[in-house]
Amino acid sequence: MEGKKSYTFEEIKQKLVAYCVYQDRCHQEVEAKMKAYLLIPEAKEEILLFLLRENYLNEERFARSYARGKFYVKRWGRVKIRQHLKQKGINDKLILKSFEEIEEEDYRIAMQDLARRHYGQQGGGKDFLKKQKTIRYMLGRGFEYEGVLEALETIASSED
Q: What is the pTM of this model?
């Protein structure tokens, strides 16, 4: 094995602590990181238990910070956040808890602002097409269909 540096158990443990301290991680990310170190199953288990016991690894904290960041920074809707958390192996109960991090009023305002901005960028043309493109855009951002329609109704009523 040329070019591969080998580490002691303690060094690997400290590297994984640093990995978790840098930003909240889920089990799946930590396990993927451990694969790079070619550990025996018992060592992996011991490290995982240590990370959990010392609260370096906390699924609820991860889910909450993930939902908060993806909504407030990237402006993702709940549907997209849910899909991504599911892909990371987070259970439905924790996903629902993570949505507590998103204020309902902030969500509604963000949805209206994004819809208004995208609708306005469509330029001239048929309102029907502008509306369709905006709906597609908003669904792609992970917002719920009913909420998108309400946001578009608000836009239409403000233009009258």
A: 0.87
Q: Using DSSP, state whether 56 is helix, strand or coil.
A: coil
Distance of alpha carbon 63 from alpha carbon 99, whole angstroms = 9
- What's the pLDDT tens digit per position in 30-58? 999 998 888 889 999 999 999 999 999 99
Closest CA to 47 of 16, 89, 71: 16
Q: Write out the two tokens for 122.
A: 């469509």
**Three-state DSSP state, 100:** helix
Tokens of 81: 């956040």
Task: Summarize pLDDT for 75-109 with one digit per residue, the tens.
Answer: 999 999 999 999 999 999 999 999 999 999 999 99
CA-nearest of 21, 141, 26 to 76 is 141
All residues at 6 or more sequence positions from 50 whose CB lies less than 8 Å from its CB, including other chains: 13, 56
The three-point CA angle 151-157-160 to 5° equals: 145
Structure tokens at 52: 């959990």
Supply 41's token pair. Answer: 């199953």
Query: How far apart, in whole angstroms, are the C-alpha atoms of residue 2 and residue 126?
Result: 63
Amino acid (one-letter) located at 143: F
Q: Which residues contact 112 (CB under 8 A, 6 or more apart)?
A: 151, 154, 155
